[in-house]
UniProtKB/TrEMBL annotation:
Transmembrane segments: none annotated. Belongs to the ABC transporter superfamily. Macrolide exporter (TC 3.A.1.122) family. SMART domains: AAA. This is ABC transporter ATP-binding protein. The keyword Transport applies. Keywords: ATP-binding, Cell inner membrane, Cell membrane, Membrane, Nucleotide-binding, Transport. Residues 6-227 form the ABC transporter domain. GO terms for biological process: lipoprotein localization to outer membrane; protein localization to outer membrane. InterPro entries: AAA+_ATPase, ABC_transporter-like_ATP-bd, ABC_transporter-like_CS, ABC_transpr_LolD-like, MacB-like_ATP-bd, P-loop_NTPase. Signal peptide: none annotated. One of its GO terms (cellular component) is membrane protein complex.
Length: 227
């Protein structure tokens, strides 16, 4: 694969290493995601998919192996440099939206931009643009408690894209929604990713949803295999 946005090589991760109850979650795992490619990651609960996404997103360390983001070996970077790379390059979406309840939809999207040095007016304009793209232009001033679960998750998608990342990592992004809402919200997510040309790894237990992506991988026994 030429010019991968994400490249994991020889990734291993063990918890409680050396203790009787140690758990080896990832075993010499390799994964590459090309520019503009959407990869579905299918895995049962407890298989290590969240650990894999946290390592790919520079939120967790590895026991061995390398993590390259946009051609840069992140395993060689210090904490500050890793934080800068994560903030500028990677967007995250989780099963639960994790919106800040005291802030409006717009403010939740503005905050990561302000942390990256974007001015107030530009951050607000970007929030308005993103919310309009997911059909929530009339919800800019609403707080999370004033929105439905599907609306909250769409705001979370917008927040993940606020700083124009090149890579999106999503961990069961519709897993907390009912089937009908899940279908609608997933379609919004796929539209956002396609329209922006993002690379993405989207973990889901739903094989039908995973089948709509460019490639589907199954995480089993600590490694990924094509489905």
């Amino acid at each position: 694969m030429s010019d991968p946005v994400l490249k994991l090589t020889g990734i291993s991760k063990t918890y409680n290493e050396g203790e009787p109850g140690e758990i080896r979650v990832l075993r010499d795992l390799d994964l590459s995601v090309g520019r503009g490619e959407i990869v579905g990651l299918v895995a049962p609960s407890g298989s290590g998919k969240s650990t894999l996404l946290h390592i790919a997103g520079l939120l967790d360390s590895t026991d061995s192996g390398t993590v390259e983001i946009e051609g840069q070996d992140a395993t060689r970077l210090g904490d500050r440099a890793r934080t800068r790379l994560r903030r500028s390059t990677i967007g995250f979406v989780y099963q639960f939206h994790h919106l800040l309840p005291e802030f409006t939809a717009s403010e939740n999207i503005e905050l990561p931009q302000r942390a990256a040095g974007v001015g107030t007016s530009d951050a607000r304009a970007r929030a308005r643009e993103l919310l309009s793209s997911v059909g929530l232009a009339d919800r800019m001033g609403h707080r999370p408690s004033e929105m439905s679960g599907g609306e909250q998750q769409r705001v979370a998608f917008c927040r993940a894209l606020a700083n124009n990342p090149g890579l999106l990592l999503a961990d069961e992004p519709t897993g907390n929604l009912d089937p009908d809402t899940s279908e609608q919200v997933f379609a919004v997510l796929m539209g956002l990713v396609r329209d922006t040309g993002l690379s993405a790894v989207i973990a889901t237990h739903n094989l039908e949803l995973a089948g709509r992506m460019d490639r589907t991988l199954r995480l089993t026994s600590g490694a990924v295999q094509p489905v």
